[in-house]
Amino acid sequence: MKINYLRVLGNIFFLVGIIFSFALAVLFTWNKIEAINYYFTGVTYPSFNGLRCPVVMTQSEQVTVTAIFDNPAAEADNFYYRVEISNIAEPRRIEDQIAVAAHDRKSLQWIVSKEDIDLRYFVFVKMSILRNALHSTQEATCGIAVLNFQGLTGQQFFVIALVLGIFGIGLGLGIWKLANSTRDYRQPVLGIVVLLAMLSGLMGWWLMGVILIAITILLLTIFARNALM
Predict the structure, then answer these.
(1) Confidence band (pLDDT; 50, 70, 90) for 170?
(2) What is the pLDDT of residues 80-124, one digit of tens each?
(3) How far apart are CA 107 and CA 162, in angstroms?
């Protein structure tokens, strides 16, 4: 039986891309769901879109959480904020205010480390913005997965996984297109769904991320079943 080595090479690149992209999609979505559950009180407010957290860190790292205060109004705004940072013993609470001129933005940063770990594998942050004449009460949460990588920082792992995921899927599909004359769209569909799941998780759209992850698992199950038959 003649082996199509080009097709095999494409499948290898594609599989690597799927593995890393799917892992990031799960990580993004899991972080968000755990953070929402951690701070859930039964009361919800409109989202504050200025909270920025790393996706992953190691226990030996100190990483930075950033809050960006954007004021699009025609007058100065005072943002009264409260930051809550997880800790297995006693969570940190920071309350203060920051003045932002009209049509301007400012940012604040806080350092988190292994001292802020709770639930064994996460650091959680919640930002609350109190209501005033220019904006309503807003809030945002984020989770940072704490993992151990041999010789890598969390940021390095994230960049490597992101590049391998996108590059692997893209190159794999390109080679697949060259090697296949049939109109079999299973691989492109799977690649698109996984990339959309990763994008949804990265944007914080956890519900869409869950749905796309479930579709990905279903597609992988179907493809594996067909391959074994």
Answers:
(1) very high
(2) 999 999 998 889 999 999 999 999 999 999 999 999 999 999 999
(3) 26
Both 95 and 157 in one domain: the answer is no
Are 22 and 193 contacting, i.e. CB atoms less than 8 angstroms apart? no
**Chain segment 176-229, per-residue pLDDT in tens:** 778 776 667 788 899 999 999 999 999 889 999 999 999 999 998 888 776 555
**Would you say the pTM of this structure is higher than 0.85?**
yes
Running DSSP on this structure, what letter comes out for residue 48? P
Specify whether 103 is located in the same domain as 43: yes
Contacts for 135-140: CB closer than 8 Å, 24+ residues apart: 135/77, 136/45, 136/46, 137/45, 137/46, 138/45, 138/46, 138/47, 138/48, 139/44, 139/45, 139/46, 139/47, 139/48, 140/47, 140/48, 140/49, 140/50, 140/51
For the chain, the domain total comes to 2
* Structural domain span for residue 14: 5-31+153-228
Does one domain contain both 167 and 222? yes
- 3-state SS assignment for residue 221: helix
Phi/psi-derived region of residue 151, left when phi > 0, alpha when psi is between -120 and 50, beta in every other case: left
Whether residue 38 contacts residue 119, with contact meaning beta carbons closer than 8 Å, is answered with: yes
